[in-house]
Amino acid sequence: MTDAAAPESYPRQEAATRRFRLGTPRGFAIAPDGQRVAFIRSHGGRDPIGNL
User: Fold this and answer.
1) Domain range holding 51?
2) Which end of the chain is more exposed for a tag (fewer CB within 10 A), N or C?
3) Residues 20, 46: contact at Cβ < 8 Å?
4) What is the spatial distance between Cα 38 and Cα 36, in angstroms, rounded to a whole number?
5) Percent helix / strand / coil, the chain, rounded to 5
6) Closest to 39 in 3D by CA, of 24, 23, 22, 27
7) Long-range CB contacts for residues 39-46, cutoff 8 Å, separation at least 24
8) SS3 of 17, please?
9) How many whole angstroms separate alpha carbon 22 and alpha carbon 26?
10) How far apart are CA 19 and CA 2, in angstroms?
11) Cα distance between residue 52 and residue 7, in whole Å
12) Separation of alpha carbons 36 and 2, rounded Å
């Protein structure tokens, strides 16, 4: 029987978050006028889909 309140093990957290990289900004692009920066990131630490 498992305890629902038990914390997830470190190896499982690392795997689920792709080494804690999901959710971090990537793919930076600076506008030619230097006024804006665009980047891709996911909605959270376990979401693999990147959004602008």
Assistant:
1) 1-52
2) N
3) no
4) 7
5) 15, 20, 65
6) 27
7) 45/17, 45/20, 46/16, 46/17, 46/22
8) coil
9) 10
10) 25
11) 32
12) 48
Q: Where are the beta strands (DSSP E) in the chain?
A: 26-30, 37-40
The rounded distance, in Å, linking the Cα atoms of 26 and 50 is 9
The model scores a pTM over 0.70: no
Q: What is the DSSP letter of 34?
A: S
Q: What is the pLDDT of residues 17-46, one digit of tens each?
A: 989 988 899 999 999 999 999 999 988 888
Q: In the structure encoding, which two tokens stand for residue 47, read together? A: 């979401």
Write out the two tokens for 12: 């499982």
CA dist., res. 5 & res. 37, Å (int): 40
Q: What would the two tokens of residue 16 be?
A: 């689920």
Helix (H, G, I), strand (E, B), or coil: what is residue 15? helix
